[in-house]
Each structure stands twice: as structure tokens, then as C-alpha cells.
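Q: My labmate handed me this sequence with no annotations at all. I'd like to see what the chain might look like in three dimensions before we decide whether it's worth expressing. Could you predict it?
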Amino acid sequence: MRKTMKEMIKRTAACLLFAGLAAGMLYGAYRLLHFKSTDGCYPAEMFYQQEENTVDVLCLGSSHTYTNINPAILWDEYGMAAYDLAGSNQTLWNTYYYMKEALKYQTPQLVVVDVYRVMEEDEYQGTERMTMNMFGLRHSDDYVENLQVSLAPEEEQLDYLLRYPVYHARYQELKEDDFLPYHGDANGRNYKGFNINSISTTVFEGLPDVTWVTETGKMEKKNEKYLKEIIDLAKEQDIPLLLVAAPYMEVGEEDEMLYNQVAEIAAEHQVDFVDFNRQFEQIGLDPQKDFAESSHLNYYGSEKYTSYLGNYIAKHFKVSDRRGNKRYDSWEANSRYYEKHAQNVDLKKTTDANAYFKKLFANTDRYTICVMTKGDYRSQKWPFIKSMLKKYGMDPDTDTVWVWKDGELQMTVPADTTEDKVYYELGKISLVNKGVPDADNTFIVEFKAGTVAPYAYLTENGINIMVYDNELQEMVDNAGMNASDGYAFMRY
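A: Here is what I predict for the chain of 492 residues:
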């Protein structure tokens, strides 16, 4: 009997050990393979990293939330602790369940919901969008309900309930960032959901005018149902609610008719709604500078819109100013991260040579900078360009490569050197002179993994520039100044 008892204990211990190892392996596989998209899964995943009851302004909705409402601006100008918990093309029913989930962990002083997706026409969303808008959430009864209302009945719901069958084949798509903490995001736990991916600039001739639209449209019944569910949930939790429509260039009559219906529903339920598509000029939006494309603001526009929105919130709602409160240090850190990231984006968008080098050398404390003169780099404007380069410590009498790091000039070598050991780390990439005939004795960019990048330089005749941010761990710019075109900037 005693021997049998010992055997049972050993077997039980072995089973428990096996179960623990299996659970650990499955969790490790999940951490590696699960979706990490910044337009859905990642903001939801990182929301759980926020200290409980610190998010004072909870911002929900689609990409019109996470590309337009910038928590760093709300913090800097108003001291508001905001988080963008949103996903690409997120339906109102997804937003409702996001809100239910968020209120389990946070007690916001205000919930802001962008209602752009009131124009949703489909009763169910595609599986790709659904994964973006659900897989970042923890499993719960609400997750199951969200799944049931989001996925068409003919789809295999069990796969999306278990999740692993959906993403298990992702191993073929794995990248370096999948193995890094916070997926390589230098902002880490300070991340607040804002996506600065919309950094392009589309030039428009003028701003749309929809102020003349007075007719009311009719949204799909499912949209209306969940818009009212959102309103009711806010009232049940006694949390102020602000419904908004962020400004976008492609807004038209049909959109505005639906927003007019939102206004009627909001008035009926005594909640605030602001259609900012009727306030382009008041916000100060520039059609030639502030739009990524027809549907989103770029980061310039987001700063203006967020500042204007923050002013509205400050006037109509009571939201605490948390600046100086140690418990909210992550919002201050996020703001400083955004400031640096915005400087990087602004540098890449700068096309005036004098302004460019001024911005470039203002950040040599965190930048690694490589400047190369190449080919016939002298032209009619050369005296001006040469004097500007000399101002920053470069005296280009021959083809030369200069490298700065930690605020100091680290290396100056002739660009035509045949020395095959010239090597310099440039963040995650390397500056290498191959010193072999087929490399044309020219410095190129080589990734540490060994893949030679095809964009070693952009101009055969002029000045080539590469910039890496060591602190944010990102490539800032790869530019060429073409001497034959008046040193006009060239970029991929």
C-alpha cells in the first residue's frame, strides 16, 4: 500500500510537471505567434499593461481614433491621461465590447467614441478585420458574445474562440520584432495606443464644406442598436460620454446625413456629440500639409485636432490634470517619446537643405549620422552647400564619408578607400566598405543578418545621408541630395 501511494504521488507529480511544461510551451508559442498589429491587437494587448484606474480619458473607435487622437498632446497641453483603445475599421459592436472590457480595469472620467463606423453596411465583418479587433482582448464571456455578433454563422467559430488555430501558422511570417520585448517598440509600457503610421502627406486643393447638409440619414439597425448600447453602458456606469466624428477629406453628403442621425440620437439621450467635419477651419487644418490621405490626418493634423478636442473637453467635462503626479509618469514618458519620434518624422519630411541640417545636427546626442559625398557632387549651388557642410564640421574636397555618434565626429574616410576592414555600426545596421570590384569600392548599408540593402545611396552625383536614432532604435532617414537637380532631396 505504501509503495502504491508513493507511485501515485510520483505519477501525479510527473503529470503536473508535464502539464506545467505543456502550458509553458503553449504560452510561449502564443507570445511568439499571436497577432501584434498596431492597428488593432497591440493597443488592446498594451491596454492591460496600464495601471488600474489611471486612464482618465478612454478613447474608442476605429482608425479615426488611433491616428487622430494623440494622448501625448492631451497630456502636454491639458494633463489628461488618455489611452486610444481602438482598431482598424472597428464596428460599433466591437467598440461596445471594447468599452465593456475596458471598464473592468479602468474608471475613466470621460469616454470618447469616434462614430465613423456608423456607415458600416455589413452585418458581419471579414475575419481579417475581426482578428484585429478581437484577438488583443482577454478571454471572457464578453469576448464570446463579441465573437458571436461579429462572425458570420457559416464561419468556424471554434477556431476564433480558441484563437490558436487561426494564428498557429504565423511562424512563416515571424520577424525579429516578434522575439523582442514589446515587439521592438522602444516606448515599451509607456505606449498609449496612438499610431503615428499615417505620416505621409497628401496635398489637397481645399477643405470640404458639408455645413449645408441638414437632411437626416438612416444607419443600419445593428449600428443604431450598438450606438445606443454604448450610450446606455456609459449611463449605467455613470461615466460622461462624448461622441465625435473626426475630420477627414472624403466626408460627403451621405456621411453627414448619418452624423445628423447620430446628433439626433445623442440629443435624445442627452449626451454630447461633435461633428468636427463642420469645423475644419476652426481647428486650423491645412489641406496641403495636415492629411495623410483622404481618410486620416497625418501627425501634423493630429496635433491640431487633438489640441482642439482637448480644449472642448476641458470646457465641457471635468478631467483631472495629472501632470506632476508620479503615478502618471508613463504618460510623461510617452509624451517625451512622441516628441522625439515626431522630430524624426519631421526631419524625413524636410526638403530645405539649410533647415534639414539644422534639425539633423540638433539631435546628434541620440543620432548616428552618415554623410557621403559621391560622384560629381559639385554644381552651381555648390558654394552654398559647401559652406553649410563646413558649418557642421565637413570640408568636402574629395569624395568623403563622415560618421557622427554620441554628439561627436567619429570617423572621416575617403569614399573610394580600398581598405576592406572599414566598418561602423549604425544602430541595427552596419556601414561597410566591401572593398571588392563588384561593390564599386562604395560604402553600403548591410543588415547584421547579412542581407545587403539595395539602397546604399540614392544619388550617384551629390550627397547621401543616413540617420539612425540610437535611443528610439529606428532608422530615421535615408536621403540623397541630387547635385544635378539643385541638390533636391530624393527619398524612397
